[in-house]
Amino acid sequence: GMAQALGPDTPFTAIAGSEIFSLEMSRTEALTQAFRRSIGVRIKEETEIIEGEVVEIQIDRPATGTGTKVGKLTLKTTEMETIYDLGAKMIEALSKEKVQAGDVITIDKATGKISKLGRSFTRARDYDAMGAQTKFVQCPDGELQKRREVVHTVSLHEIDVINSRTQGFLALFSGDTGEIKPEVREQINAKVAEWREEGKAEVIPGVLFIDEVHMLDIESFSFLNRALESDMAPVLIMATNRGITRYLSTPGRHLGTPKPHLNPPHVHVALRIRGTAHRSPHGLPLDLLDRLLIIATAPYGDKETRQILKIRCEEEDVEMTEDAYAVLTRIGLETSLRYAMQLITAASLVARKRK
């Protein structure tokens, strides 16, 4: 929900406190990678493109079938028409995209990438039947060759991985990034700072969400304290269900172990910080706790639980009566919301069978 509210351009990374403990990677490296995944860089660059409607494609194939293919491509806009000579690679790219006369295409001059935008409105009556995916667009106007600003949004971690080794981009897909040298990160930070000064790039601090933060040890907390002081640090959100004890008067229901006469409701209980003998609220060191804004969350009430169950029923395409909603809401409040939601499909199948 939080990631959706922030939008697609804001980096959002969610990890659990226990994820950083690994034999292959140190804890500080895992946290550094999580931090840098949460920092985005919006890079702007101008590219030259050729955009027009395909009038004709002529491909000359050698009679022997072994020589290189050559051809000509005729493109037009509303104001001009030009013929381009084609090499073997461009012919292959056109064949791959299944480009034919009447298509509106763009060609990136730097990379040779061909993108099909759709078919021209003037060719709408060429065929009696067309697929649902066929898109009709206007014939481009103005010059064939244009300059267009392209914006790429990448995270600092992706730049780190690509520059950390030969063919580093393959590690992005496999996930086997390993430990990245600090020198590589320093060079990338310097380059990003240079791009910012030149106006080529913009740094987007994202959000790093750490669940079960009480699982981190004192070394990890010390690292977080220092990392938060960076000028490019993302917004850090920590979540924990330890350190606050609530006593509920409902018969047979207790959250936490302390007895009601020993601890009044909503009391902060000091937990041992992992890796030390010291105790602190929520199991976090006091110097880090002083820098945080604590937001307490309350359990869902009757109305909220009912509304969540209604949304879940709509998603699962299940119709329920008001009595069924009342029973499910009671089950959700007495046990857990997850248990109540898992009963929806099962109850629906049983009801269908009885009919």
Automatic annotation (TrEMBL):
Q: Which InterPro entries match?
A: NA-bd_OB-fold (IPR012340), P-loop_NTPase (IPR027417), RuvB-like (IPR027238), RuvB-like_C (IPR041048), RuvBL1/2_DNA/RNA_bd_dom (IPR042487), TIP49_P-loop (IPR010339)
TIP49 P-loop domain segment(s): 1-246, 271-301
Q: Which UniProt keywords apply?
A: ATP-binding, DNA damage, DNA recombination, DNA repair, Helicase, Hydrolase, Nucleotide-binding, Nucleus, Transcription, Transcription regulation
Q: Where in the cell is it found?
A: Nucleus
Q: What is its EC number?
A: 3.6.4.12
The RuvB-like AAA-lid domain extends over 308-355
Q: Which GO terms describe its molecular function?
A: ATP binding; DNA helicase activity; hydrolase activity
One of the record's GO cellular component terms: nucleus
Superkingdom as given in the UniProt entry: Eukaryota
Mind listing the GO biological process terms from this record?
Answer: DNA recombination; DNA repair
Q: Which family does it belong to?
A: Belongs to the RuvB family.
Known role: Proposed core component of the chromatin remodeling Ino80 complex which exhibits DNA- and nucleosome-activated ATPase activity and catalyzes ATP-dependent nucleosome sliding.
Mind telling me what this protein is named?
A: RuvB-like helicase
State which gene encodes it. Ruvbl2
